[in-house]
Amino acid sequence: MSDSPLPLASALHEPVLRWYAANARALPWRDPLAGAWAVMVSEFMLQQTPVARVLPAYEVWMERWPKPADLAGEAPGEALRAWDRLGYPRRALRLHAAARAIVEQHGGEVPDDHAALLALPGVGTYTAAAIASFAFGQRHAVVDTNVRRVFARALTGTAQPSISPTAADQRLAVSALPEDEPTAARWAVATMELGALVCTARTPRCADCPIRSQCAWVLAGSPQYSGPPRKGQTYEGTDRQARGRLLAVLRAATGAVAKADLDACWPDQVQRERALDGLVADGLVDPLPRNRYALPA
């Protein structure tokens, strides 16, 4: 597939960008003065976590650690403590490791080179593209779930994208990019915002969509999704919840925690031990002498 914009995608650029200019949320990491570190922190936090939950934690985080060096100088356990209830806490350790790498390898400044971003701990294809685009105005396809859904509907006429990201999704997003870098960077965030606010998964607001008259899915009569069942994630009673309870006890403590205190926070012994072993294996908890545990030092 050519890297030049698809003819249909090219027709979508202007209305989507105009809509974004009028409707974009005023989020702190989008402030022109926020800087690359602010964008990077937000991208780590926003993975699988909605904006409403991220905002309070983000504000606290950036006040405490406004630069990578500020975070790099702290113990990894402090990053876990500040992560609080955002979920998927390994992101906190990866962000801490990335901050140390930025200090050690890039003079404390988030690199603007895409390959250098990809080499940072915890930075994958999506995150590197997002930072390069949103922080440095570069031309990259930034493909999250919202963007995949917008393109699936607008460009291919299907109700939902594939359950997991595919190489075809990436190629489609690349082919839809505007040619010049500043416009491509705005397009990347604009399509993401359109998917988050209008072209939503369950109840898309097609009447409010700036490209409804050009959307392949709408023009096809908005056919129902007919692919494999899309299972929602459960949380109650899972190992994830057990791990969260154990981490909550450790975050609330000022030092090491006795095993008996961890035992008291989750009733199922087998599941509790499995969750604790997993936290230790993931580097999220340090086992200490005398049957005590702590956040990583």
Distance between the termini: 49 Å
- CATH C-level class of the largest domain is Mainly Alpha
Q: What kind of sheet is the major sheet?
A: 3 strands, antiparallel
Order of helical and strand elements:
HHHHHHHHHHHHHEHHEE
Uncertain runs? none
- Kindly state the percentage of residues in helix: 40-55%
> Could you give the order of strands across the largest sheet?
1-3-2
Supply the number of structural domains: 3
Number of helices: 15
Shape-level CATH architecture of the largest domain: Orthogonal Bundle
Commentary on this structure:
The protein is an all-alpha fold. It has 3 domains: 7-24 and 141-219, Endonuclease Iii, domain 2, CATH 1.10.1670; 34-136, Hypothetical protein, domain 2 (Endonuclease III, domain 1), CATH 1.10.340.30; 239-294, Orthogonal Bundle (Arc Repressor Mutant, subunit A). Helices cover 55% and strands 3% of the residues. It has 15 helices and 3 strands. It has helices spanning 7-23, 36-46, 51-64, 68-72, 76-83, 90-106, 114-118, 125-136, 145-156, 167-175, 181-197, 216-219, 239-252, 259-263, 269-281, and strands spanning 257-258, 286-288, 292-294. Strands 1-3-2 form a 3-stranded antiparallel beta sheet. Helix 2 runs antiparallel to helix 8 (125-136) and helix 5 (76-83) packs across helix 6.
